[in-house]
Write a structure and sequence with these properties.
The structure holds two protein chains of two kinds. By secondary structure, chain A is mostly helical. Chain A is built from four helices and no strands. Chain B contains ten helices and 18 strands. In chain B, strands 11, 12, 13, 14, 15, 16, 17 and 18 form an eight-stranded antiparallel sheet that branches. Chain B has a seven-stranded antiparallel sheet with strand order 1-10-9-4-3-2-5. Chain B has a three-stranded antiparallel sheet with strand order 6-7-8, with no helix packed on it. Classes of the chains: A mainly alpha, B alpha+beta. The interface between A and B is medium-sized, with 23 and 16 residues.
Chain lengths: 72, 381
């Protein structure tokens, strides 16, 4: 999925309130790396946390490794 | 307290043979009622909701109490808490409607997240984009602000001021009086809950509930088996008041079916029943085979919502009989509406001096008036 398609999919997921899609799409955006990776990963983590999604702990650990989140 | 208020409240607290009721302003004047609310509803143990409102882990229900946004929330372990329904960041309302919290409560503004036990667990971008922690934002000190809570007989009580004596201490007398009913009981479900919206101050609902004087006139259907002389006063100064009957008859279905009894009750309860207003705002009824709780929600100085919940000794009572029982009680409570609304409208009359009490029949109602007056005096002096 190219960047424009990803942005469109994220917008659609926000409009639909589709948390599962938001988690996956923000995680995908973070996978692209670069300076915005922690930003996108934060969003994936927050929506996973809200949803009680099983990916939340791993996403949090990834943020800790990136020094974007404090260790528990 | 200003001198111009002192005399009327002293008159309210006088012996019943001389007492007058609370002045009109306690039913009509928002400023007087705001002062009264502080003394009567915020610094005591006020009934807010029932546990059955949030039966499952993760269930959340926003509730307004005296205009303050609260959140009733059951965590993953079944513990029930009440929080202020606001984010610790910018004071945004967190939960707008009853719903299930799956994982965490996410503030819809900047997405700070709270666990179901109130802990602040995420502060996205609080240190800048992609930086989710920073100096000065100590999550351990920024959990949801909790309201002091106590649950008794499934009723959730709150002490908003946080400084009332413990519930078990304040209400030890009623806990002892009804110790025989201190056993599991079960909400009857959807057909056993209903609400009545009434154009009256909440106190008038208490005052009417306390006394049996009105029964033969307002509830004439009772006269055939439950006469005025079959009732007695229940009076515990400063705590609760109400009435009891010696002639309770069990409801029967068409085939003679009755509800099961609470286990282990003494003989008194074979035909006894009691109806108590637990100060400030909870109306209770107990019988051998069911109990109910009515939470009086003060919506405005002249608007009250009565939240009625009926409970049974077992979880598997007959649905049709439960429906019949709920209908019976709803009709009784509806019969009371015209009097509490009429008394509210009557308090627009400047010529009303608070009224006089029958020393023989109005003791429980005067007791409530005197408690309200004494609370105001205690808080304001």
């Amino acid at each position: 999925m190219d960047r424009r398609a990803l942005d469109d999919a994220l917008l659609a997921a926000h409009q639909a309130g589709n948390r599962a899609a938001l988690i996956a799409l923000y995680a995908q955006a973070a996978d692209d790396g670069g300076p915005g990776a922690a930003f996108y990963l934060t969003h994936a983590y927050v929506f996973a946390l809200e949803a009680g999604d099983s990916r939340a702990p791993a996403l949090r650990q990834a943020l800790v490794r990136m020094k974007a989140e404090v260790a528990e | 307290m200003p001198d111009d208020h002192a005399r009327p409240l002293a008159d309210v607290m006088a012996p019943i043979t001389r007492a007058r009721g609370l002045p009109n302003a306690h039913y009509t004047d928002p400023a007087t009622i705001a002062r009264e609310n502080r003394a009567v509803l915020e610094t005591t143990w006020a009934a807010l909701a029932v546990g059955a409102d949030v039966p499952e882990p993760g269930d959340a229900k926003p509730i307004s109490f005296l205009g303050q946004p609260l959140l009733l929330l059951r965590d993953d372990h079944g513990a029930l808490r009440v929080f202020f329904n606001i984010c610790r960041h910018r004071g945004m309302i967190l939960v707008e409607a009853p719903r299930k919290i799956d994982g965490a409560i996410r503030c819809p503004y900047h997405s700070w997240c709270y666990a179901k036990d109130g802990r602040l667990v995420a502060t996205p971008h609080v240190g800048g984009p992609g930086q989710n922690a920073c100096d000065g934002i100590d999550r351990a000190t920024l959990g949801l602000a909790e309201v002091r809570t106590h649950v008794w007989r499934d009723v959730v009580f709150i002490n908003l001021s946080g400084d009332a004596a413990p519930f078990e201490e304040v209400h030890a007398d009623l806990l002892t009086r009804w110790a025989e009913f201190d056993k599991p009981f079960y909400h009857g479900g959807e057909e056993s809950r209903f609400t009545l919206e009434v154009a009256t101050n909440w106190k008038l609902a208490v005052e009417n509930y306390c006394e049996s004087y009105h029964l033969p006139w307002v509830h004439p259907g009772l006269n055939s088996y439950s006469r005025l002389e079959d009732h007695y006063h229940i009076e515990q100064p400063g705590k609760f008041s109400g009435q009891g009957t010696y002639v309770y008859r069990q409801l029967q279905g068409g085939d003679g079916l009755t509800f099961p009894d609470f286990d282990g009750l003494s003989e008194h309860w074979n035909t006894g029943a009691e109806y108590v207003a637990l100060y400030p705002n909870l109306l209770l009824g107990v019988h051998r085979d069911h109990a109910y709780a009515i939470i009086l929600e003060s919506v405005a100085h002249d608007r009250t919502v009565e939240h009625v919940h009926i409970y049974y000794p077992t979880p598997d009572t007959d649905e049709a009989l439960r429906t019949k029982n709920a209908t019976l009680w709803e009709n009784v409570f509806i019969e009371d509406i015209f009097v509490v609304e009429g008394m509210q409208r009557g308090r627009a009359a400047s010529g009303f001096d608070g009224g006089r009490f029958s020393p023989a029949m109005d003791g429980p109602t005067h007791m409530f008036h005197a408690w309200v007056a004494s609370r105001i005096e205690a808080v304001e002096t």
